[in-house]
Amino acid sequence: MELWFTEEWLPGLKLSVRVTAIVFNKKTKFQDLCIYDTEQLGRILTLDNVIQTTEIDEYIYHESLVHVPLFAHPSPERVLIVGGGDGGSLREALKHPSVREVTVVDIDGDVIEASKAYLPALNSGFSDPRAKVIVGDGPAFVDKARSEYDAVIVDSTDPIGPGQALFTEEFYSSIKRALRPGGLFAAQTESPILMPAVVRDIFRRIGRVFPVARVFTAPVPTYPGGLWSFACASLGTDPNLPARQPNEAWGLRYYSPEMRERAFILNPKMKHDIIES
Amino acid sequence: MELWFTEEWLPGLKLSVRVTAIVFNKKTKFQDLCIYDTEQLGRILTLDNVIQTTEIDEYIYHESLVHVPLFAHPSPERVLIVGGGDGGSLREALKHPSVREVTVVDIDGDVIEASKAYLPALNSGFSDPRAKVIVGDGPAFVDKARSEYDAVIVDSTDPIGPGQALFTEEFYSSIKRALRPGGLFAAQTESPILMPAVVRDIFRRIGRVFPVARVFTAPVPTYPGGLWSFACASLGTDPNLPARQPNEAWGLRYYSPEMRERAFILNPKMKHDIIES
Questions:
Q1: Shortest CB distance from B193 goes to which of A12, A18, A219?
Q2: Which residues from B are below 8 Å from A269, CB to CB?
């Protein structure tokens, strides 16, 4: 038997990986959740046939999304992760010694349970006493928060289906209200090479809400186009100025102060496509 | 009729793109050459079923490979491109006003002819009077040169089949002899995320020949893993110190002085995998 998982990156462009075992599959209340073992990407988690995380490159995505905002803060204590049910962002946020509480709000409890059961590379944070896990609607949760978090990290699916509500101006406004003074917001913002107009539109919406909003990128081989974009926004703090840095004991594989600076540098075409057009 | 071109990136991992037209196909003396039109990648050229160049990302690859070495030279006059029959590297090298001659040596004349006929986005350099095109064996050609070039650029296929000879220590030694004082060497060196051991071995060989050898990277969505590595080596010049910079009239889409600096910064895992292991 030869099984392949195939993801349509765009109509007419797809990535396929040979599957050695179907580890878990469930039609949840919100989406089709699968965990596969593969030869080349290690264990992978897909939602509605879209790769969310793979063992070979999840560290690049999670370290970028979490450490870029958190290292811009001198002493983050309370962090909110919207989405992120696989636990990868939680694992990274808990590495900051000042952090006293990380709240993960994911709409799909089955993703969290599947990660706890089948993703040992990602799920270590769930057993940390500082982790607070809530199964519920992210926008509704954020909407009730007032000046509560030093960082809000949106670790979402694509802006279709359940993820759509996490890319609206209304949601960004409620995140702004949820931040303490000096707080930062970060989010994944899609493929800058294959879908520059989508990234541009997301940044226009973020830019209408936050006084400071910067694009950064990181290579994620299993996401469409292999390069991914992220937002880091704030009420005034420059997201590009790190307030602290990690030491070797953190065991980071992607993030470093040099890589952080690198991440904010855009090529001329990307600047034009996303910022200036 | 629905046609797909599928490239096996690694055993068990593949990229597929829908083909709207087969523009050209020939079994040449050396390889199976195809040019396709596609919805998502524009016109693409493949050799032995491996994507060499696509309209959507060739500028990233060619600007990186050519401008990183050439801008490290204060006044490059004579440039040798080994491989590069599609003309993309030639087009970029000719943008440097000091350049008086660019020699392209490609083993497969059919690639050059196909580019002239079907790749208008890449072939403009072939009609420049400073271009000298030779159909022949790259290593044999370089072996005869003594202190003749300000830059030697190896724009090759992968280190299998005809490309294999372009990744040997003997070839790197003959490139060293072919360089004028102050000259630079650059080459594509494969996928640093999916094949770090291959990249490491190439750099060991380059490092045994050149006193200064640096790795740099650029995102190329249609190459395996989406991030690509390159070498820039010299007899002493620091490849990371640009001697000049482009102005807006060059119309560069990827290269800039900031992007150059960015390209040489490696993440901790990649440093370990390629340099320190």
A1: A219
A2: 59, 253-254
pLDDT in tens, B204-255: 999 999 999 999 999 999 999 999 999 999 998 999 889 999 999 999 999 9
Q: What is the pLDDT of residue A163?
A: 87
In whole angstroms, give the CA distance from residue A119 to residue A116.
6
Q: Quote the pLDDT of residue B162.
A: 78
* Catalytic residue IDs of A: 155
Q: Which of B106, B108, B150, B155 is catalytic?
A: B155
Partners of residue A36 on adjacent β-strands: A22, A44
Contact B265 A258 (CB under 8 A): yes
Q: How far is CA A50 from CA A5, A75, B36, B275, in A?
A: 10, 35, 27, 34
Q: Which is higher by pLDDT, A1 or A25?
A: A25
Question: For residue B10, what is the nearest residue in chain A, using CA coordinates?
Answer: A40
CB neighbours of A59 closer than 8 A, spacing ≥ 6? Answer: A253, A254, B269
Identify the residue whose tokens are 């490159």. Answer: A57
Active-site residue flag, B137 = no
Q: Predicted ipTM? A: 0.95
Q: Is the pLDDT of residue B145 over 90?
A: yes
Domain boundaries of chain B, sorted by first residue? 3-54, 58-276
Structure tokens at A155: 């670790």
Nearest CA to CA, how far is B17 from chain A (Å)?
A: 4
CATH of B58-276, one of 3.40.50.150, 3.30.365.10, 3.40.50.720, 3.90.230.10: 3.40.50.150
* pLDDT mean over B245-269: 96
Nearest CA in chain A to B250: A268
Q: Is A269 on the interface with B (CB under 8 A)?
A: yes
CATH of B3-54, one of 3.30.1330.60, 2.30.140.10, 3.30.1380.20, 3.30.70.3270: 2.30.140.10
